Amino acid sequence: MSAATVLGATPAAPSAPAPGIHYQPQGREVALFEHAYYNRLPMMIKGPTGCGKTRLVRYMAERLGRPLYTVACHDDLTAADLVGRHLIGDAGTFWSDGPLTRAVREGAICYLDEVVEARKDTTVVLHPLTDDRRILILERTGETLEAPPGFMLVVSYNPGYQNLLKGMKPSTRQRFVALSLGFPHPELEIAILMRETAIDAALAKRLVVLACALRTLKDHDLDEGASTRLLVYAATLIRSGMSLLDACHAALVEPLTDDAETIAALREVIQASLGGQG
Amino acid sequence: MEEQVGALWHRLVTRASAHRFPVAAVRLEDMVGLIGIYFRALGGDAGLEVKAADEHRHGARRGLLARIAGVGDRMALAWRDDRALLLPPLIDRFPEAGLNRDLYLWLAALATGEARKDDDWLTGNQHLARTTLARFPGLGDRYRRLVTAHLAERPDPARLPPPEAEAEALIRQALTAPGSVTRLPRGRRPPLPVPLWLHPDPPLPMGSATAGPEGDEQERAPDDPSADLGRRRRQAERAEMPHKDAGFIGIRMENILTWGEYVRVDRATDEEDDLERAKTAAEDMDRIAVARDRKAGGARLRFDLDLPAASEDDLVLADGERLPEWDWKQRCLLPDHCRIQEMLAAEAPPCPLPEHLRRTARRLRDQFQALAPARTWRRGLPDGQAIDLDAYLRFATDRHAGAQGDPNRLYADMRSGARDLACLLLADLSLSTDTWVDDRGRVIDAIRDSLFLFGESLAATGDRFAMLGFSSRRRDPVRVHQIKTFAEPYGAVIRGRIQAIKPGYYTRLGAGIRHAAQRLAREGASRRLLLILTDGKPNDLDRYEGRWGIEDTRHAVGEARRQGLEPFCVTIDPEGNDYLPHLFGSGGYVVIRHPAELPARLPLLYARLTAGG
Known about the structure:
The complex is a heterodimer of chains A (278) and B (613).
Chain A: H1 29-38, E1 43-46, H2 53-64, E2 68-72, H3 79-83, E3 84-89, E4 92-97, H4 99-106, E5 109-113, H5 120-123, H6 127-130, E6 135-138, E7 143-146, E8 152-157, H7 170-173, E9 177-180, H8 186-197, H9 201-215, H10 228-239, H11 244-253, H12 260-274
Parallel strand pairs in A: 1-8, 1-9, 2-5, 5-8
Antiparallel strand pairs in A: 3-4, 6-7
Chain B: H1 2-17, E1 26-27, H2 28-41, E2 49-52, E3 55-57, H3 64-69, E4 74-76, E5 79-80, E6 84-87, E7 90-91, H4 97-111, H5 121-135, H6 140-153, H7 162-176, H8 206-210, E8 235-238, H9 275-284, E9 287-290, H10 298-305, E10 315-327, E11 332-344, H11 358-369, E12 375-381, E13 386-387, H12 389-400, E14 411-416, E15 421-428, H13 443-461, E16 464-472, E17 478-484, H14 492-500, H15 509-521, E18 527-534, H16 547-562, E19 566-571, H17 576-584, E20 589-591, H18 598-610
Parallel strand pairs in B: 2-6, 8-9, 11-17, 15-16, 15-18, 18-19, 19-20
Antiparallel strand pairs in B: 1-7, 3-4, 5-6, 10-11, 12-14, 13-14, 16-17
C-alpha cells in the first residue's frame, strides 16, 4: 500500500538512520528534546529559516533511534494529506495511510515543517495526539490508533513569516513544549562553517561577521537575515573555486532580495567586509 | 558686449580655479537609498535618515584664481547627529565618477564608527579612519585611492607660509597614516577641510536648537515653508529675540557694499506675506539664527482662530481616555501622556455614493464579491481529500459495462475561502491633507474617496470592518473621529459621515495607532488588519516632530504586532521610503506615488493583503 507519492506532502519514506548526522547544539536543546521524548510530550521548534531546525530533528531521530517522517506543510495541505484517504485501485477503493498515521502505527517521529503554512482546520487533527490521550482518530475507517511510546510529534515554524498572512491557533500552540532556535552565536557559527565546508577559520570568521551585518537589516531593508544555511552555501562555492565576491553575491545577496537598490547596497557591504581577499 | 565678456571671464576663471568635474558628479539623491542600507548594514543607527548637508564657509587659504573667481570658500562636509546622517548633496571633486561614489561610501562607513570622548576633530577622525579600515578591510584599497586623489588636489606645503605648511604636511601624514598625528600647529588660518573626514564642528541639529522642555514647545505652522527648502539641513545658531526698538543704524548706508548675512527677520511673528522671498533668502543663508520667543505671535493667533468653538465643533462621544507615549531618549513609556477625544461628525446627513465614484465602486464590488468567503466541496478533481462517490460510481459501472471512463476525475476536495477577519482603517485627517494635489482636488479628497470605495468594497465581501479618522493638537487632545464602528452596517449614514470629514491639526500617529489597536484588539477575529492611511510623517506642534514621532510610532506599531494585529501603512508621501521601513518593516507598507491612484488602489490592496487568509 505504498501511495505516498500521490499525497500533497513530501514523500514520506522514513529516513534511514544515516550514521553521522552532525548537529552542533546552541544550548540545551538536545537535552530538552530528549526530556520531551521520554515524557511523551509534543515539541514545537521556532526559529528563522536556515538556522538548523530540520537538522536538529534529523539528528535527534538518529540519536533516539526512531524513524522520521517529515511533512513540509503548505497552503493546500489537508487533514487527509496527513491522516490518509481512500484511493482507487483496480479492485475498487482502498485506504492509504498518510505520514502521520504511519508514524503513529510505527512509533516514529513525525515532523511537520513550517506548520503555520498548513490550513488551520488541518492542524486540528493533531489535537487528540498532543494531549495525554495520544490517540489518532481515523473517521473514515472508524479506527482509533493509540500512539506507542516511541511516537513523537514535532512541529516547527518561522515566527518571522507570521506577521501578515498566518498565525497558529492559540489552542494548537498551547499543546506543545516549545524551543526557540536563533542563528548560532558567532563562534559557534564559525565552527559550523568550518566543519560543514572545511574552510579556514579566518574566512569563516569573515563570512560570519558579514552575515551578522546583513542580519541587522532584517525588518528594515530585508524580510529575513542571511541564514546559516546560506553561509554554508557561500563557503561551499568559495571552496569549489569561486571568488569570494561572486560566491557571496550568489549565496547571500540574490537569495535575500529582489530589489535592485538593495542588491547594489549589499554588494558594497560585501566588498567592504570581504574585499581585498580575492 | 560688456556682459558677454564678463560672463566669459567668470566662466574661465571659475573653471581654472575650481577643482570640479561636473561630468563625473555623483548626486546624493541618486544614492540615498543605497547609502541608507549600506550604513545600516555596517552597523549604523537604523533610526537615522540620510540627508544632504549644507555648504559651510571654511576660512582656509585659497589660491589667487579662486579668490578672484569668488569660489572655493565653502565646502559641504559629512557628519552624523542623533537624527540624520548628513552627506554632501553632490560630490564632483574627482575626475572619475567611481571615486566620487567611493567617497560617499567611505563617508557612510566612517560615520558608523563611534567617536571617542575627549577626541578633537583631528585625532577623532584619524581614530575613526583607523577603526573603519580595521573593521572593513575591503575599504583599504578604496581609501588609498581616495587619499591619493585627494592629496593631488590639496595645496602644496612648499608653497604655504611656515605654520600653515607644517599643518598641511601633518594633515597629509594623518591621511596616509591615520593615527600618527596628534596635534596641529596653530596658524592664522584653519587648514583646508578634509572631505574624507567628518565635519570638524558639526552644527547642532535644528531640533535641539528649537525644542525646549515641555511647556516651552515651539509652534510651527502646519504647512511650514521650511519644508520647501528641500532636504538640506541648515546650520542653526541661537540669537536673542530682536527688540522692536533696537534698530539702530550706526554706519552710513552708502558704505554698505554687500548684503549682510545676518538679517533680523522675525519669522515666527512675521506675517509672511511674501513666502517666496523668505524662501529665497533662506536658501542663500549659510547660517540661520533661531531665537526663542515666549510671546504668542501672529501665527499662533491665526492658528487658534482656526479652532472651532465648542458649539460649532463635532459631538464628543467619549473624552478622557489616556494613552502612553514612547520617550525614545529615556527609552520608556510615558504613562497617560495623550488624551483621546472620540468625536462624531455633528452635521453628517445621510447621503448616496458620490456620482463620480459609482462606476469604480460597481467594478470593485464585483471583484470583491468574488472574494466573498465560501466553503464548498469541489468535485471531479484528480486529487482530493475524499473520493467523489458519484464520479466513482459512474466510473465503476462504466468499466463493468466495458466502456472506458475517465479515471482522472474521481476525487472531491473541500476548498475553503473562509476568512475570519476584522479590519480597521485609520485615516489621517491632519491639516496637511488639505494640500492641493493638482487642479482637481486635495489629499483629503483622495482620502475621502478612498474611504467611500473601501466601504463599498468591503460591504460586498461581508468582512467585518471599521473606519476611524484622527488628528491631534499636541498630546491633548488627540481627536479620533468615529466614521464606522464594527457593529454598524455600511450605508447612507456612514456615507454621510465620510462626506463630512474635514482636515485639521496634526498627526500624532502613535496615539492614533494605539487607540485603533485597542479597538481592533477587542474584535475576536483570528486575523486583524490595521490599515493606516496617511500622507506623511508623524508630526505635531511639540517635540513630536522628527525622531520623537518616528520612534513613538515605531513603538506603537510594535505594540500592535505583539497584540497579534497586522498593521499596514498606505502612504502618499514620496519620501515614505526613507522612514517607513523603520516604522513598519519592509513588507509592512506601500507608497502610492499619486494620491489620485489611492481610491482605486486601496481596496485592491486590501484584497491582496487578505487573500489566502
